[in-house]
C-alpha cells in the first residue's frame, strides 16, 4: 500500500500550504539579499564621493550627532517592538499583534518625520543634492533608505487593517512574517548609515 | 521501502521564537550604538584607532541583529538562507572593495601628470 494514503487529504493539503508558505518566505529572503546588494552599491558610491564637497560643506559641518542618535533610537526600538509583534504572531494573539505593529508604526513614523525634517533643513540652507558629489550620494543613500521605510509603513498600515478585518489566517500570518523581516532588515541597513555616514563623517574620514 | 514515497514532513523554517532572543538583541544593540556614539562624541581615542573601533562595533551590531532579530543560522538542515546570505556578502565585498580600489587607483593615475609638472617646475628652479 502507498504510504501517502495513511495521511488524510486534509493533512496533505495543510502540508502543501505550509510548504508553499515557506517557499514564499524564502523567495522574500532572496529579495532582501538583492536589496542588500542595491544598498552596497549606494554605499560604495558614497564612499567614493564623500570627500568631493566641491567647496561646499562636509558631513562634519552639516550633521548633528544627537539628532541622528534620536533617529537611531527610534528605529532600533521600532525593530524591537516589531520583534515583540512576531512573538505575539506566534502566540496567535490578534490584539497584541495589532498593538505592537501599531507601536512599530508610530516609532517608524517618528523616524521618518525626523529624517524628512533633516532633509528639509538641508534643502532650505541650499545644501541639497545639487550642491556637491558628496551631497548627491548622501541624499541618494539615505533617501533610498527613507523610501524603504515609507513603503514599510504603508505596508504596515495595510496589514493592520487586513488583520483587523480578516484575523490571523495563513496568508496574513505569512505576510506579517515578511513585513517583520523587511523591517529588521531596514534597521540593519541603518546601522551602516549611522556608522559610515554620520559617525565616521564626524571623524572626517 | 522507497523513501521518496514517504509523506513529507515539513518542518517550520524557524524554531519557536523566544522573547529572550529579542530582549538580548535589543540590549546588545543599544549598548553597541551608545558606546560607538559616546566614543565619537568624547573623542575617546586617537582618530585612526577610533575609526577601527567604530567599524568593529558596527560589525558586532550587524552580527547581533542578524542573529537575534533575523534568526539567521537557526534554520534546520538544507541551510539555503545562510547560504545565500554568504553569497550576498561575497557580492557586496567585491562591489564595495572593488569600487574603492578602482577609484583610488584612478585618482592615483590621474594625478601623475600634475605631479610630473610639479617635478618639472622644481627642476627649472
Percent helix among the residues of chain A? over 70%
What is the CATH fold-level name of chain A? Four Helix Bundle (Hemerythrin (Met), subunit A)
C-alpha Rg of chain A, in Å?
21 Å
Alpha-carbon distance between the two ends of chain A: 71 Å
In total, how many beta strands of chain A?
0
- Count the DSSP helices of chain B: 4
- Along the chain, the helix and strand elements of chain A come as HHHHHH
> Which spans of chain A of ≥5 residues are poorly predicted at pLDDT below 50?
none
Using the alpha-carbon principal axes, give the shape of chain A: elongated
Determine the CATH superfamily of chain A: Cytochrome c oxidase, subunit III, four-helix bundle
Number of DSSP strand runs of chain B: 0
Helix count of chain A?
6
Largest sheet of chain A: none
Average pLDDT for all residues of chain B: 83
Q: Largest interface, counted with CB-CB under 8 A?
A: A-B, 53 and 50 residues
* Overall residue-averaged pLDDT value of chain A: 93
Q: Report the β-strand fraction of chain A as a percent range.
A: under 5%
What is the total number of structural domains of chain B?
2
Distance between the termini of chain B: 93 Å
Amino acid at each position: 500500500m502507498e504510504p501517502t494514503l495513511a495521511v488524510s487529504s486534509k493533512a496533505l493539503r495543510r502540508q502543501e500550504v505550509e510548504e508553499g508558505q515557506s517557499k514564499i518566505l524564502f523567495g522574500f529572503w532572496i529579495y532582501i539579499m538583492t536589496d542588500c546588494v542595491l544598498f552596497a552599491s549606494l554605499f560604495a558610491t558614497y564612499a567614493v564621493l564623500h570627500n568631493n564637497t566641491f567647496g561646499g560643506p562636509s558631513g562634519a559641518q552639516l550633521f548633528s550627532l544627537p539628532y541622528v542618535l534620536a533617529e537611531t533610537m527610534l528605529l532600533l526600538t521600532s525593530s524591537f517592538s516589531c520583534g515583540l509583534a512576531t512573538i505575539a504572531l506566534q502566540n496567535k494573539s490578534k490584539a497584541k499583534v495589532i498593538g505592537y505593529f501599531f507601536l512599530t508604526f508610530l516609532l517608524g513614523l517618528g523616524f521618518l518625520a525626523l529624517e524628512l525634517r533633516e532633509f528639509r533643513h538641508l534643502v532650505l540652507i541650499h545644501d541639497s543634492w545639487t550642491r556637491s558629489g558628496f551631497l548627491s550620494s548622501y541624499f541618494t543613500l539615505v533617501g533610498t533608505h527613507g523610501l524603504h521605510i515609507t513603503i514599510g509603513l504603508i505596508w504596515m498600515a495595510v496589514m493592520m487593517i487586513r488583520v483587523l478585518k480578516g484575523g490571523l489566517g495563513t496568508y496574513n500570518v505569512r505576510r506579517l512574517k515578511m513585513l517583520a523581516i523587511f523591517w529588521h532588515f531596514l534597521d540593519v541597513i541603518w546601522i551602516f548609515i549611522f556608522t559610515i555616514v554620520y559617525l565616521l563623517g564626524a571623524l572626517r574620514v | 521501502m522507497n523513501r521518496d514515497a514517504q509523506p513529507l514532513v515539513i518542518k517550520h523554517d524557524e524554531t519557536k521564537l523566544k522573547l529572550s532572543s529579542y530582549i538580548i538583541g535589543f540590549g546588545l544593540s543599544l549598548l553597541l550604538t551608545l558606546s560607538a556614539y559616546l566614543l565619537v562624541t568624547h573623542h575617546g581615542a586617537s582618530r585612526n584607532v577610533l575609526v577601527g573601533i567604530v567599524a568593529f562595533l558596527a560589525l558586532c551590531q550587524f552580527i547581533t541583529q542578524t542573529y537575534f532579530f533575523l534568526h539567521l543560522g537557526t534554520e534546520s538542515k538544507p541551510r539555503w538562507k545562510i547560504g545565500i546570505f554568504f553569497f550576498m556578502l561575497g557580492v557586496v565585498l567585491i562591489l564595495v572593495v572593488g569600487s574603492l580600489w578602482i577609484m583610488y587607483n584612478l585618482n592615483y593615475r590621474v594625478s601623475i601628470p600634475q605631479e610630473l609638472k610639479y617635478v618639472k617646475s622644481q627642476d627649472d628652479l
